[in-house]
Amino acid sequence: MVALITHSPILIIAIPLVAAFLTPLIGMASKKARNALVIVSLAFVAFLVIILARDISINGIHIYTLGATSPELTLPGGAMVPIRIILEVDAMSIFMGIIWATVSLAAAIFSLSHMAGETGQNRFYTLLLLMVTGGFGMMFTGDLFNLFVFLEIASISGAALIAFRTRFADAVEGGFKYIVISAVAGLIFLFGVGLLYAQYNSLNIGFLANAMQYSTLDIIALTLFLMSLTIKTGMVPLHMWYPDSYTVAPANITAMLVITSHACMYAVFRICFSLYGGVLDASVVGWIIVIIGLLTMFVGVTMAVFQTDVMRFMSYHAISQMGYMWLGVGVGLAVLGNPALDTYGRDAISGGIFHILNHAMYKPLLFMTAGALFHRTGTRDLNKMGGLGHNMKFTLILYIIGTLSIAGIPPLNGFASKFLIYESVYQFNPVLAVVAMLVSIITLASFTKAFQSAFTGPQLPEYKDVKEVPKPMLIGMGILAAAIIFTSIFPGLVVEHIVNPATDALINQAAYVNGIMGGGMP
Amino acid sequence: MIESPSGFWGPVVWIIAAIVALLIAYFIQRRGEKAYKKGVQSETFLMGNPKLSEGETHIKAHNIYWGFFEGLKKYYVPTIAAHTGIINDHLIWFIAGIAVVVIILFVTGGI
Questions:
Q1: What percent of chain A has pLDDT over 70?
Q2: Which of A12, A294, A423, B108 could be bridged to B4 by S-S, CB 3.0 to 4.6 A?
Q3: How far is the C-alpha of A34 from the C-alpha of B46, rounded, in Å?
Q4: Could you tell me if residue B42 is inside a domain?
Q5: Residue B35's domain spans which residues?
Q6: Is residue B47 part of a domain?
Q7: Is residue B49 one of the residues assigned to a domain?
Q8: Is the pLDDT of residue A522 over 50?
């Protein structure tokens, strides 16, 4: 068990990678064996994430140096510069890992029925597992270049999965847009990495944070990092590709793509706090993040309420909700290093991070319910739907749980995180809190529209014989709904044991740097 | 329970309140009209006019909040027009965004 915990960071990345390449081989022999391989490997990864999270909660940051005689040996032979690939998993990284493990497992179970009628399933599951690999890599790496590599793995597999149903022209267009945006964003990010490497001769985040001078080149690199990850996250005004791509992907893949957006957002936070935390003008960068967040919330929700395509509607809401996270964390960053951090800044960051967790549960659930509607009706057009609640009662209940949560209706978990954001942001600037509440009201109004259009009303003649979706789809959605209910009933437990440690890990730059550099600073 | 800078949130009270409200609603429903029968009493009656088909009585998504969109036309027309769906436009926004942020960081004391 000790060896399993020690090697868990690399195992969590390697297992889905190996499974990805085994999937087509096993799939040629037996579909059932292939499906079992996918589910078992993801379930085992989830188990590893849980034991690693427990270890981190007890022993702190977990370092894993690839190729070293001991995984903790970051500076071999008295070297002053970490030269190997290093994974650095702290409470913030494992927080993201828990989310990714849960959603990818739920999405894979959902796929068993949702994708059952599609051809090329061996390729589908290979790509899904590669995307899982890329996501975990982004969350666990302590190295900027590897962050780029894993970002590319997640992006390329994501693009292929968006365009997977090639019989739909818009799916191919969505995949094309995704890969172009990802490639441009990736190269801009790589350019920023090059600027830092040229100055400091290292790619390790901990080492770079320790050596950072905040020179002109560092500022340009910061801008490139911020904006490349901002467009990948889908923040306004760089969001326009997002609904075009996320709408056309299979619903289970869209659910996972939401978390890859979270991973990009995590990278923004990691760069602002852990890489530049000691030197950047936190107030200015914090306000930039707050303004982007505010714009994203408002434009996202007002565009969502206008939509009649259920997946496009969900996509705009995913954009809008991302704004809350940026608002909370941006306020915390803006007051980093001054006494307000202790008064309300830490709570604002906790609110933003808690909202990542909540969004990672209710948004994939809502995308999956939209997928369930498409699965049974063959359309995404809300104008063509109606009365489906008569025959799809479980989907209806799951949709209501997701809706109440995203709209921040008490006692659901969406309210708990918004409550933290409202109260702390109000102390920073009351106008921001008012806009956040207004966005919540419009969110509820727009989900009521979708609810009325799809589920209520008389049974339409064309959907008289519609049945509930198959059990694996319900189980996939049920896992997320159960997580929502648990978080709703025990928000204090979740905040105390998962969210607050993640917030503290993000704020505490010294601990992150020491994880790599130990006592021997160059 | 979670604590914020100026208060706290505990869902248990809300859950108890919701259960009590549901029980009250159930109690009122139980005291309702005993002679009610499912069927003819719930049929639509439009002043003796022929009944509309089921599809015609359902309000479609594009009709909902029509007034909201009309009232905010000045916001919606340019905002929707900006969403061209053309990837070149998306990249122009990206380049403009990089330019704006780098200028802000330099002007506010970066160098």
A1: 99
A2: A423
A3: 58
A4: yes
A5: 10-83
A6: yes
A7: yes
A8: no
ω into A491 cis (within 30 of 0) = no
Identify the DSSP state of A142: -
pLDDT in tens, A242-273: 999 999 999 999 999 999 999 999 999 999 99
Helix axes A251-269, A310-334, angle to 10 degrees: 10
Q: Which residue in chain B has the smallest CA separation from A494? A: B2
- A167, amino acid identity: R
Distance from CA of A415 to the nearest CA of B (A): 9
Q: Which DSSP string do the residues of A410-440 spell out, in sequence order?
A: TTSHHHHHHHHHHHHHHHH-HHHHHHHHHHH
Cβ neighbours of A240 (radius 10 Å): 24
Neighbours of A190 (CB within 10 A): 18
CA nearest to A286 within chain B: B105
The verdict on whether omega for the bond into residue A82 sits within 30 degrees of 0, i.e. cis, is no
pLDDT interval class at A519 (50, 70, 90)? very low
Q: In the numeric block, which tokens belong to residue A338?
A: 């001054």
Tokens found for residue A506? 């993000």
Distances, alpha carbon A353 to alpha carbons A87, A307, B38, in Å: 22, 28, 50
A420 contacts on B by Cβ (under 8 Å): 2, 4
Whether the CB of A184 is below 8 Å from some CB of chain B: the reply is yes
Rg for chain A, CA atoms, rounded = 22
pLDDT at A441: 95
Could you tell me if A172 lies within 8 Å of chain B, comparing CB atoms?
A: no
Judge whether B43 lies within some domain: yes
| C-alpha separations of A266 from A113, A210, A475, A505, B106 in Å | 31, 20, 28, 12, 25
Asked if the model's pLDDT at residue A521 lies above 60, the reply is: no
Inspect the interface and report whether the beta carbons of A453 and B60 lie closer than 8 Å: yes
Planar angle of CA A413, A416, A417, nearest 5 degrees: 95
Q: Exposed (0-12), middle (13-18) or buried (19+): which is B40, by Cβ within 10 Å? A: exposed
This prediction's pTM:
0.92
Q: How many domains does chain B have?
A: 1
